[in-house]
């Protein structure tokens, strides 16, 4: 029973830590998911290498992590008002070509990081960016100004 309490405590602790650390540190995998996978791997490793002398406690701990992950998913689905607390909310980091410096500071996102990410998306100038949003998964979505003046849809066919 102590293994279940320890696993539940570590789950909550890792969740709080990842909320404090922020989301701009990782792109593909959320910080919490990375810590969850590393921790579960360590728990399994202890049972397999017999450091814990019990495979059962490793299985129990990983099972508790899995059940709590499913429970968090259910809470996110069932009560949308809780979603911003559990997952976070997207934030605007640039509007009309101007960086939102206070927002960037609070998210610990530097201008250099923003410029690097923009270049990776093929954007060479901040002035071309209409809106940049730091998503809950740590990625930045860019919405650029249309240079051709159309609404962003496909070009109409030209008579030929």
What's the quick description here?
The chain has helices at residues 2-21, 31-48, 55-78, 83-87, 101-106, 111-120; strands at 91-95, 98-99, 129-134, 140-144.
Report on this structure.
- By secondary structure, this protein is α+β, with helices and mostly antiparallel strands.
- It folds into two domains: 2-87; 91-144, CRO Repressor (2-Layer Sandwich), CATH 3.30.240.20.
- 52% of the residues lie in helices and 11% in strands.
- It has six helices and four strands, in the order H-H-H-H-E-E-H-H-E-E.
- It has helices at 2-21, 31-48, 55-78, 83-87, 101-106, 111-120; strands at 91-95, 98-99, 129-134, 140-144.
- It has a four-stranded antiparallel beta sheet with strand order 2-1-3-4.
- Strand 1 and strand 2 form a beta hairpin.
- The chain is elongated, with a radius of gyration of 22 Å.
Can you tag this structure with a few keywords?
160 residues, alpha+beta, 2 domains, 4 strands, 11% strand
């Amino acid at each position: 029973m102590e293994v279940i309490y320890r696993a539940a405590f570590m789950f909550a602790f890792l969740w709080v830590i990842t909320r404090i650390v922020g989301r701009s540190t990782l792109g593909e995998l959320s910080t919490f998911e990375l810590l969850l996978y590393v921790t579960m791997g360590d728990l399994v490793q202890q049972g397999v290498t017999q450091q814990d002398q019990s495979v059962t406690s490793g299985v129990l701990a990983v099972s508790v992590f899995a059940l709590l992950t499913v429970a968090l998913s259910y809470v996110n689905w069932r009560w949308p008002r809780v979603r911003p607390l559990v997952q976070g909310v997207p934030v605007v980091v640039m509007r009309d070509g101007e960086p939102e410096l206070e927002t960037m500071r609070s998210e610990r996102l530097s201008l250099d990081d923003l410029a690097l990410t923009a270049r990776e998306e093929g954007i060479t100038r901040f002035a071309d960016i209409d809106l940049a949003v730091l998503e809950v998964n740590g990625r930045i979505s860019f919405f650029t100004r249309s240079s051709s003046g159309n609404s962003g849809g496909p070009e109409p066919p030209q008579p030929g």
